[in-house]
Amino acid sequence: MEDVWSLVHAERAALIGDLENLDDHRWETPSLCRGWTVHDVVAHLVDTARTTRVGFLVGLARAGFDFHRLNARGVERERRASPRDTLERLRQVSSRTSTPPAPLDSRLVEEIVHGEDVRRPLGITRCYPQEAVVRSLRLQVRTPASFGGARELVARVRLTATDADVSIGDGPDVRGTALALLLAVSGRRVGLDDLDGPGIDALTPAT
């Protein structure tokens, strides 16, 4: 567990470092999360860092068991008028080890995928630790879609990382970096641009 949290904390610190000198107007850049700006995603990361197992269950019940409503309320709760204040909120919670009732590696998925949701539209690049990306990918492909994963989506393809010893599934091949595969199975179209292989159509979200 400690090694997971050290990776999570490193990702939070890296994102704070990438954003601390960002001009205020760029915080309103649309992120890769549909309907959310960069500012919204950072507020969501504050909310998830503060979430406890009990708090998650209570919040989900109050949201009528609607995950989208739960997340929207979290963004509204944690987003401050000033981006600097929201970023300071993230800095204050960056060393927390609280988590909703989910596998611990889901915290890595949260930090890496949302990190790319923010960085890519801003033209910021990061070389993520390979271990963190691979662990995130393995969790996503065994998690049902109803819980934000891609188990059903990749049931008919084989994912092969070109930069790591990872090959998952049985079917037409999809090849690319572990990060590109992670983004694709997390519903980010941008990840598809860096993939190839006969199975890629199965990863293409319906329009």
Roughly what fraction of the amino acids lie in strands? 5-15%
Number of helices, counting only DSSP H or I runs of 4 residues or more: 8
Overall, the morphology is globular
The proportion of residues forming helix, as a percent range, comes to 40-55%
- Listing every helix as H and every strand as E from the N terminus to the C terminus, the arrangement reads HHHHHHHEEEH
Number of separate domains? 2
Note the gap between the termini.
Answer: 39 Å
Assign the structural class, choosing from mainly alpha, mainly beta, alpha/beta, alpha+beta, or little secondary structure: mainly alpha
Report on this model:
By secondary structure, the chain is mainly alpha-helical. It has 2 domains: 2-122, no CATH class; 130-203. 48% of the residues lie in helices and 5% in strands. The chain has 8 helices and 3 strands, in the order H-H-H-H-H-H-H-E-E-E-H. The chain has a 3-stranded mixed beta sheet. A hairpin with a 5-residue loop joins strand 1 and strand 2. Helix 1 (2-19) packs parallel to helix 6, helix 2 runs antiparallel to helix 6 (106-122) and helix 6 (106-122) crosses helix 7. The termini are far apart. The model has no long low-confidence stretch (mean pLDDT 93).
